[in-house]
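Schema walkthrough. Field components (list of strings):
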Amino acid sequence: MLVLDNVDAHYGKSHVLHGVSIEVRAGEVVGLLGRNGVGKTTTLKAIMGMARRTGGRITFEGNDLHGVPPHGLAGLGIAWVPEERRIFRLLTVLENLRTGLDRPGITPARREGLLEKVYAYFPILRERRNQAGGTLSGGEQQMLAIARAMVLEPKIILLDEPTEGLMPRMVAQIQEIVHALHRDGVAILLVEQNVPLTLDAAGRVYIMEKGTVRHHASSAELRADQRVIHEYLGV
Amino acid sequence: MDQILIQTLHGLVNGMVLAMVASGLTLIFGIMDIVNFAHGDLLMLGAFVGASVLGMTGNYWLALLVAAIVIALLGAVLQVTTLRPLIGRDPLTTILATFGVSLVVQKYALWQWGPSVRQISEPVHGDFTLFHLQYPWYRIVTALLAGLIIGALWLFLKYGKYGIWIRATTQDRVMAQAMGIPVPLVYTAVFAIGSAMAAASGVLFGPFAGVTQTMGFDFTLRAFIVVVVGGMGNLGGSILASIFVSLLEAYAAIVVSPAQAVIVSFIVLVLTMLFRPTGLFVPTPK
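Field assembly_structure (string):
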């Protein structure tokens, strides 16, 4: 469904991605592991058209994403949950969700259904719906960022370090949500530093180092043989 | 005492018109980081369009509406042709571009309508007596209308679907795009809305002092002062600053001549820049 074929990307003059090839099939959860600064986030940004792609091809359901404007990706079914969460801080929780809900061609009933669905997943968001996004705790902001992606009814969610800086109880909740999305048939490209969580949630895992993919294996293989993990991640 | 009351009323009326001009300017700055030097000239052009429509039809309210729509369309065209290609460039390029637009618009107005002052006759006649002074009803109507238009803008930004798009884009344009909000279109629409507000202010203000092709610069300058004093890109701050500065000027006019009273707004500007450069009416930055 989502295919990165030999992608190169630059930030300004620095060459950040060197021939990255990754594939995510429909409904699949794929992990992307690696140390800080190896290009995981840039890979997601290259998909979103935010990092300057200088080589290779990115296709989604067979269509080249080159030339699709950044605001056209949501309509194709690609949602992004950035590492910094990027909540609209001065908008209320409900207004944050409305940025994704108020799109052309959605019926009021469907809109209401989607809102109910994310409130069922994250009851705290219903409680805080009239509160400014910037006043939420880190964990609540993460839930809002995921909920905001969910209301787009995406086919794939690019999930960037969702558990970073969260307390264990929140991490468990995020893990549950990833499982639930997987059950709903949403594909996920999960960038993480948390190895156990990634191996638990993802079917396959790519390991990146120095701007390129160094290893690719199923989670079962990696669980059975932890040497690769030690080699590339040092844990 | 009665002089203070009269000047308070005067300051409030001027403040409301200024607030309307400034809110268009601050909306554009807040979302696009564009300092629009042509804002006052769009106001002037709106006043001329209004005067022409009024001359042809005799209907002031129609003139107000037509001027707003025509200048909104012109604003949209200007944004697409001159400013959209400059997105992401040095802010200086947009300043120069809008300054260029300002000159072109002024010269066009001179060519089209000539150098003489045009009058817009007020739609509401009659005065009321405030102490010993006759005060025209039209000024009160203008202040109320300006208040209504600003209120409508505020409601639209707060509750409207596209209002949320505008606020989301103002806060984080990259994330707004990722949510599927067509940011280039939002930019054009905001520029059109700001232009329409300027044009409507021009028609509202026209009966006060007449319409000339050089009236724009004064408005650009005054709107800039209040936008900076109120905090760049902060709508509520600009409105409060408009009223604050206009009231100060009105009170100063009791002591000195009205022409000298204008100095007060510059003093406020300088003091703001010195002691609180983020603006008077914004929460203290953490």
